[in-house]
Amino acid sequence: MDLATIITERRSIRRFNSRSVSQELVTELLAQAVRLYGQGESPRVRFVYAGTPEARERLVDGMTSSMRENKLMRWVPGKMIELFKSRFTAIPGHLIVVAEAGSDRSGGEASVAAACGIMQIFQLLGWEQGLGMLWDTERIIQNEVFFKQIGIRDHEVFVGILHIGYFDKAPRGRSRTPAEKKWTVYEGREAKTV
Q: Is position 186 within any domain?
């Protein structure tokens, strides 16, 4: 399969089957994604993988406990939280991506950009292997309780979680906005949208 086809056909997957995802495959794809990103110096990015049933359960416990810290979530029925917990515990793998914050703004932004680039490449490489993923950055789990539980250090920022697994059926693609509709020409004065 060529790259353009992989990019066009890749979808976010929300329903995974129970087939396990080997840690070796995740490590191999990550190493390849980091090499392909190749922006000179080594990116200041770190990965945490929860692939065993015990690790997934601890991770989801951390996600739900951080959700319970949110004032709005106190109104959500316990059954909904248990449904969330069982659904996410069943996902075969979770890859947490963390970037170095950097001592200045541009250093931190460069690290986050590198992490995002690596995550995108990783998703494309995974798709080629039959792996589906969902990139999760839900604000509701982003708090100190969760960050402490997953081991984020003072000089690091949470970039996202890739929920990973094999799937039986990919969702249909949605129509995309043509690039021409997002095109602006800069002429040295005010930019004109074409």
A: no
